[in-house]
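step=predict obj=Polyprenol-phosphate-mannose--protein mannosyltransferase n=556
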Amino acid sequence: MTSASTAQSANPDPSTTDRGDGAGRGLPAAVRRRLATVDDRIGRGQAWLATAVVVAIAAILRFVGLSFPPGKIFDETYYAKDAYGLIDRGFEWNYKDNGPSYVVHPPLGKWMIGIGEWAFGYQDADSGVSVPGHLMTTSPEFGWRFGAAVAGTLSVLLLVRIGRRMFRSTVLGCAAGLLLALDGYHLVLSRTAILDIFLLLLVLAAFGALVLDRDARRRRWARALEGGLDPTQPGRAGRPSSGWRDWPWWRLAAGVLLGCACSVKWSALYFVPAFALLVLLWEVGVRRSSGVRRPWRDAVLDELPWLLAAGVLMLVTYVATWSGWLLGQDGYYRLAERYPNNPELSDTPFVGALINLWEYHKAAYGFHTQLDDPHKYQSWPWQWLLLGRPVAFHWSGDGSCGAPSCASEVLLLGTPLLWWSFLPALAATAWLGLARRDWRAGAILLSVAAGLLPWFWFALDGRTMFSFYAAPAVPFLVLAVVYVLGAIATPAPVTNTAAPPDPQQVHDRRLVGGIIAGAYVLLVALCFAYFYPIFVGRVLPYADWSARMWLDGRWI
């Protein structure tokens, strides 16, 4: 989508044309505006300094006290053990029963957990495994939670930079990162050794790569037009140069990152068609802005091969993450001779390994489609943004708190003020996006839809679901909030040049809008601080813990 406020003819008009380069052909000012991207050279030092401050806040919140609560909480009992098996053997292994583990999620997220166990040590009382760290030995909890804390911190960094590029504002980019850093839901996932924070990170990274790809392609067209390209010419004559330096490298990188995301959880697949559609819409937009006569046809013909190449890279990356299982012989379903009751397995070299991997995937898919057992903390997709049923990762009545009864809980709860802003922000983003024909609104809404809407379909089958399934959508929900804050703080450009706005009125509106946006971020920070004890398991008097259960039984 392009901005309606700059939608003008691509044909040069002497009165509105900037001089081009040595080719002697001018580029219309309107076209130049439509193809403009962020100039990273402007304010680079200040932007990185502000980014560093936000990331430092996120890191402190995620790493301080990471070893508490002690022991394995919630699904750490599965993923921490599987992660150590991957580091030790290359595939998941049950050390208590001394046999391969049957797992239903790909290995990459567990590899990322296992890196921390390799570095800082691992211990499991059930199987008697206790190994020191290769870098230093700390508490075992720090080892298996380290990877999640790193992933959570990196996702804040990515969101700051993505927000800055999308909104062309360091302030708004930092606001997006700060809101994510102060989200209790994100904080809990960043301090727990389960898979969803890694899925969030890799999906966000793939989106960021596509935003960089969009900018690179627009700069490519702008250079070509300034160099004298006539976009109305048919075939290659009307297109920019296509040497290897002009390949969509960031798009190919997004394919690799999506392959990595799928190697954490298969639910990353829902973003593949959404992101492919974004690429196609952006390519149509740049051609329409440049004056191409048939932008849709040319975009499909030019970009479909690159999208297919990115898909191939995604598949190759996914299979590569199973290399430990493929190169070993003791993994679950790896050799047919170990599973004579499954005639579909094969012992043929190389091809047999891939056949067995396919059979393994079929078995895991069958498990997921039949996952309908009731659970105390299960919830439905329409409850997630309303915080209708958060998940308790840890609960204990032990500890000293200076009161007759105490409570310690780690509750997967989004910061309420932030999460209860998501639905109004989505509605406002849709309205503003349609009114302004703003590509940013479309990108945010489509990404949120990819992260949430598929689960509504599975809800029709009664599948057991939990609120942490929404994790990949959270950064895009935060971007929706910041998009609206930006609209409040910075008024839309005025296109009626016959009646220019009063500079004082513009200044006053920006001042008031900035105060409103700043006050909102401050209130989110205060709300986060109030609920912080139940995000990290701090021991509280029971009355203080109960006071934070705003929705009573729904949060207990």
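step=describe
The beta strands are 17-18, 27-28, 93-94, 99-100, 122-124, 129-131, 391-396, 406-412, 540-541.
step=end
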